[in-house]
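We modelled the chain as a single entity of 275 amino acids. Its sequence is:
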Amino acid sequence: MDREALAQLAATDIHAALPPEDAEKALSSPPFIPIPSALNLRDLGLAAPATIKPGLIFRSGALTTWPASSRALLFSQYGIKTIFDLRHERERTRMPSPEIAGIETVWLPPTTAPSPLTLEKFAANGGVDGFADMYEEVATIYAPAFARVFAHIVARPREPLLFHCTAGKDRTGTLAALIERLAGAADDVVAADYALTRIGVEPGREMLTGILQSAFGGVGIETPGFKELSSCEGGYVLAFLRRVEERWGGVEGYLKGVLGLTGEEVEMVKRNIAA
């Protein structure tokens, strides 16, 4: 499936099922990685135009529901030796990280508990302001975990890595956007990658929607703000990148000021991920 067709499919309402044949074809097309039952698994290096080395940085949703045979392929076929789990402790307790031969899972807790979300905030301005605020907080409280990912890129430039949260959308999307922008990806490339989460979560869409509904006391999908919060519009992540520019002077400023990287380390990351 070509990029235009993927983009059209990604525009499907999150609460409507994708046609099974279209979903299967899309999930077998780059930048998706065709591992059976994988949730939202993609290679950041397969975006077009490419700014990141292919086969180096992977993103996904939680691995708990994957069969063991699929998880094993991350090491045996793609050479991944380190997985960074961006979930909080409650999520890890409910759905523990699986053990995968040859792979180390790294987890660091957020510095503080995330602020409570309100659907009212996402009902306003099409959800853009709510996402900008949420992703700015993610970039702040998950700084220790993000810093470990960048440290890996500095220290092990040829060793593939994967990072994930639960759906592979918010915390994963925040980190992916930072990496992509540092690599020089344009707005349309970053936005398109973010929007592909709509396709990537299709195998677990009903489960993930149910989890999110339960988090808000069992609200209906038509509750104001719920559709926005569960959607994957590219404008959400671009609003976050604008916030990064406003608060930290750009991604490089964030890496230095929040994650503690030196200027030399930032340049090393850029060289190590460059396509």
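As a brief sanity check on the tokenised model: The mean pLDDT is 96. The CA atoms of residues 15 and 206 lie 8 Å apart.
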